[in-house]
Each structure stands twice: as structure tokens, then as C-alpha cells.
Target: Transport permease protein
Amino acid sequence: MTSAALTPDSSAVAARPQGGVSWWFSDLWEMTLRNIRYLVRSPEMVLYSLLQPVLFILLFAYVFGGAIEVGGDYVQFLLPGIFVQMALYGSATGTTIGVAAEMRTGLMDRFRSMPMSRTAVLLGRTVSEVFRTVASLAVMVPIGLLMGFRFENGFLPALGGMLLLLLFGHAVSWLGAWIGLSVHSAQAAQAAGGVWVFPFVLISSAFVPTETMPGWLQVYAANSPMTTAVNALRALFTGGPAASDVLQTVAWSFGLIVVFGWLSMRKFESLTAR
Model:
């Protein structure tokens, strides 16, 4: 089924009373549901989103794990990094490609021509990516448990870590939205998404301790938002001081939302106004 078939019904949108908070939430709900339905009805996209992090778990745990010294069980070290990597790849690249494709086909122009909130169009896209992350976690967590991973710090810290992960994934999806609005095709969007995501993940504490990197690289790796998010999840899942990394991750997340949310909305308005 094409994305055009999943566009909100224009007569239903026009019939809703406009203005106010309830109108905005109604538009947001419609756009979020529309994007979730598109994901569900595109099984190849869902399969890719679920398969990629599983392959990373198996690859790093069983191929590279024996060669990486972390001072403890590598699976306990690895899984929080894989969770953040999964949220980053799914939310950022998924949003980038989806937004670019809809710009190319003219769907974004159609949304803008309808009597609906402008912010709900892009926000509905980024919120729907949270559900993709939840679906990936529903697959990855049981696999991690089978491999020996344990939430050693209790239920509430683990739940807090999952919520923090969803916030971070939502934040980077706004960066993905801005990139998707800035390129001219879905193919270019896929390439542009990989260009920054790949080094962003590898130059962090996701797979190896940052202390093993060259000194000049440690400065960036130890302070990147990716490392901060991974360290926060490790502390919440397996124990250790968490407050500093959690607060930094929250700050990074809201900073990304504010900056790239604003840039995305400006870009969206300028492109669809042409």
C-alpha cells in the first residue's frame, strides 16, 4: 500500500473545529497513526529495523567480544550500547528517508494544503518513530536475556533507562527530519543518514571503552551525546553512578529537539511554500 493511500482524509480534517489545543492534539494523533499504519503495512521496513540490531548483537558478542577487554562481562557492557545504536539508526535514518520520500512525492505539500497544524505533520512523523523503537526493544530485550544480559539494578532504574532511550531516539529523529528535508531524494537521504550515523556510533562507548582510543579522539568520544546516553543506560541497567550521565542525556535530547525541531519547521515551511 502506498503512503498516499494512508494520507488523512481531507474531508474529515476539514470538518474538525480548528484552533486550540484539542485541534492540535487531534491533528498530531491523526498524523502519528498515519505513520504507524504505514510502518505496519511495510513489513520490509519493520523487518530491517528489527533485524539490524539483532545482527549487531550477535556480531559483536560472538565475533569481537573475545577480543575486547572491558573488565567484566562483555554482554552486560554491549547491550546498552546496542539499544542506543538501535534507537539512533531506527529513528534518525527512518525519519530521514521517510521525510525525503514524502517531499519527493508531494505528500508534504498536500499536508500543508490541508486545514491542519503545521507542527503536527513533522511531529507526527517523529513521534511514530518512538513506536518503532518500542517494537525493536520488544525483540532485542528477550534476545539479550537469552544471551545472559541482566538488569542488575532493579525494575525502576531499568524502566527509567528505557524511557530515557525513547526520549533520546525521539530527539535524534528531529535531526533526521531536518536532513530529510534538506536532500532531494530518498536515495540521497539514505546515504546522508549513514554518513553521520556510522562514525557517531563507532566513536563512542557503545562497543568499546573510550579509554582504549587515541588521546586526541578520547576528548570527543568521552563527551559525545552517544557516549553520554550509553553510559547513562549502563548505569541504570547494571548499577553505578547515573545522575550526571542521565542529566546530560536529557539536556542533549531537549537541545536536539529545540534546535532541529526549529530548523525542520523552518525548512518545511520554506520548501512547501514554493
User: Anything to note?
Assistant: The chain has a mean pLDDT of 83. The two ends are 28 Å apart (CA to CA). The longest helix spans residues 74-105. Residues 19-272 form one domain.
